[in-house]
């Protein structure tokens, strides 16, 4: 801490003592940005092979000349450790991973072949129970939207679900909504490995527009000459956009692609844009432009690209992105439910509340069994379970007076003990006095993809809604 700022960190304790921080503590508003700036500064000379993000350092290496990838990696690690030593930065050995072929980075997994979605996020999406309200649907879509770049037809798949979230829309879960819900799960479960963008290779964009959607993909050729996808993007057309003439819809798709891939394409050497609308090549040279097209041409002027005509039969990728049958409002009702062949019965602790209400899904069996088994080691709850399984004066008499007075608040859901404060209270799973079990449940609510890494009070409130 700067000496003049030390008094600003003063904390008064109940004992009357006044404590001041001599180093930067966690919790200050500017602490994360200050720390990130410091780490980025000290590692700047090594950023070609050791990029950082806050307190995470990602060291990546490849073979150089006669040196193997491992030998180069060891050399890079020594350089990183030397810089850390000089700046008195310490690594937590328990959190370090060395010489790994694949590492988790900001919610995804990166390897030499590219980047793929984090399996824990895919699992969370696939194991999510069917939403029963707009709030639950928004929560699920919030997680699914994070992975949309891995699914080439994502925007089309969620179109029926988006209609349920419109203002003044009546909540009524129909078969077409369930079909869309299952289709998104299946699409993300089979998401491909995306190629990592290589600035030394040229990019090219494929885009297309239909009567109700636009889609595009950023692509590159790998070292073996194979065309690989860097990112997918697609979206529904707005009501006004559906009224555009055909020769305006294609530039709309191209504009959308350039906006989405701006960070890769702006300032890039000449890149190619492939479209299945031949007139687009001459539209931008026409002396008679609408005001809309004139605005778009001003935007296109920022980029250095060449438009190539690619018939729809050859432009399969972008054509599929924009022409999903389930994306067209006219055909939504005709879709069939797609069964999830990889359906799993494992569910995380966050999903338990739905199972207790007997709506859609059971809690994770391993967790359920662990909770049930722990009742036997808890004197209080073991007696309650024994009474509920075999009510008698003997089992009731074994309970304390306070427990007997509240026994009507307990009931069994299978082997799982549940608690209700009153008849209007949703049942909550009773957790035995087991530190490991409680830590696991807390981890699910705090650190899982659905947990949002909330603070202490909010995490406690979230856990308390479902567990007792």
From TrEMBL:
Alphabetic keyword roster: Multifunctional enzyme
Domain Reverse transcriptase: residue ranges: 5-109
Residues in Integrase zinc-binding domain copies: 434-468
Gene3D superfamilies, alphabetized: 1.10.340.70, 3.30.70.270, HIV Type 1 Reverse Transcriptase, subunit A, domain 1
InterPro entries: DNA/RNA_pol_sf (IPR043502), Integrase_H2C2 (IPR041588), Retrovirus_Pol_polyprotein (IPR050951), Rev_trsase/Diguanyl_cyclase (IPR043128), RT_dom (IPR000477), RT_RNaseH_2 (IPR041577)
Domain Reverse transcriptase/retrotransposon-derived protein RNase H-like: 173-271
Keyword Cell division: no
Pfam families: Integrase_H2C2, RT_RNaseH_2, RVT_1
CDD domains per UniProt: RNase_HI_RT_Ty3, RT_LTR
GO MF entries: endonuclease activity; hydrolase activity; RNA-directed DNA polymerase activity
Family annotation (PANTHER family): PROTEIN CBG26694 (PTHR37984), PROTEIN NYNRIN-LIKE (PTHR37984:SF5)
Name assigned to this protein: Reverse transcriptase domain-containing protein
UniProt organism field: Phytophthora rubi
């Amino acid at each position: 801490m700067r000496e003049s700022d030390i008094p600003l960190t003063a904390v008064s304790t109940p004992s009357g003592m006044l404590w001041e921080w001599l180093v930067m503590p966690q919790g200050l508003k500017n602490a994360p940005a200050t720390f990130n700036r410091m780490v980025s500064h000290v590692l700047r000379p090594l950023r070609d092979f050791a990029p950082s993000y806050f307190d995470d350092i990602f060291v990546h290496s490849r073979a150089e000349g006669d040196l193997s990838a491992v030998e180069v990696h060891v050399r890079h690690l020594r350089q990183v450790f030397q810089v850390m030593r000089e700046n008195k930065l310490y690594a937590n050995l328990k959190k370090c991973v060395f010489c790994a072929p694949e590492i988790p980075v900001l919610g995804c997994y990166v390897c030499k072949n590219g980047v793929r979605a984090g399996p824990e996020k895919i699992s969370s999406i696939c194991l999510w129970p069917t939403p029963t309200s707009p709030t639950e649907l928004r929560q699920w879509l919030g997680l699914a939207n994070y992975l949309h770049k891995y699914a080439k037809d994502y925007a089309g798949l969620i179109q029926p679900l988006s209609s349920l979230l419109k203002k003044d829309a009546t909540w009524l879960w129909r078969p077409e909504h369930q079909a869309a819900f299952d289709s998104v799960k299946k699409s993300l479960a089979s998401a491909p490995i995306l190629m990592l963008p290589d600035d030394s290779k040229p990019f090219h964009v494929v885009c297309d527009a239909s009567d109700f959607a636009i889609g595009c993909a950023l692509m590159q050729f790998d070292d073996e000459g194979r065309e690989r996808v860097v990112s997918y993007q697609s979206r529904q057309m707005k009501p006004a956009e559906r009224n555009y003439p055909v020769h305006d819809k294609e530039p709309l798709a191209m504009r959308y692609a350039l906006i989405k891939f701006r960070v890769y394409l702006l300032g890039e050497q000449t890149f190619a844009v492939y479209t299945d609308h031949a007139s687009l090549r001459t539209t931008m040279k026409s002396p008679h432009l609408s005001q809309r097209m004139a605005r778009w041409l001003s935007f296109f002027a920022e980029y250095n690209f060449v438009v190539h005509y690619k018939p729809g039969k050859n432009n399969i990728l972008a054509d599929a992105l924009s022409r999903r049958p389930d994306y067209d409002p006219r055909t939504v009702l005709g879709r069939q439910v797609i069964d999830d062949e990889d359906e799993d019965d494992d569910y995380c602790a966050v999903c338990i509340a739905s199972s207790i209400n007997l709506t859609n899904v059971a809690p994770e069996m391993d967790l359920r069994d662990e909770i049930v088994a722990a009742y036997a080691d808890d004197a209080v709850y073991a007696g309650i379970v024994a009474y509920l399984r075999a009510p008698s004066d003997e089992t009731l008499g074994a309970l304390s007076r306070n427990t007997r007075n509240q026994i009507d608040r307990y009931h069994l859901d299978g082997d799982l003990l549940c608690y209700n404060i009153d008849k209007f209270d949703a049942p909550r799973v009773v957790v035995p006095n087991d530190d490991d079990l409680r830590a696991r449940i807390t981890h699910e609510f705090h650190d899982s993809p659905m947990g949002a890494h909330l603070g202490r009070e909010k995490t406690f409130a979230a856990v308390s809604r479902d567990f007792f």
